[in-house]
Design goal:
By secondary structure, the chain is mostly helical. The protein contains three helices and no strands. About 85% of the residues lie in helices and about 0% in strands. Helix 2 runs antiparallel to helix 3.
Length: about 80
């Protein structure tokens, strides 16, 4: 689980430069693709409920980060 403090620390660590921010976004997009692949594998093997739940939580966290980055890039 991501705590408020962890989220705030992550947000504070983000670069202000749009080019660097885009690089962070690209890295997160890779992580999302990997998590989606793991979710597909879990579902293909019968969907272990714990692994399924953990992967869904991971995807939700990553997508939250991506939405924040997208908003910052639009504002930049």
């Amino acid at each position: 689980m991501v705590t408020v403090a962890a989220w705030q620390a992550w947000v504070a660590s983000l670069p202000s430069d749009p080019v660097e921010l885009a690089q962070v976004r690209a890295g997160l997009q890779v992580e999302v693709t990997q998590a989606e692949r793991r979710l597909a594998e879990v579902l293909a093997t019968g969907g272990n409920s714990r692994a399924h739940r953990e992967t869904l939580i991971e995807l939700a966290k990553l997508n939250s980060k991506l939405r924040l980055l997208e908003a910052r890039l639009v504002a930049a």
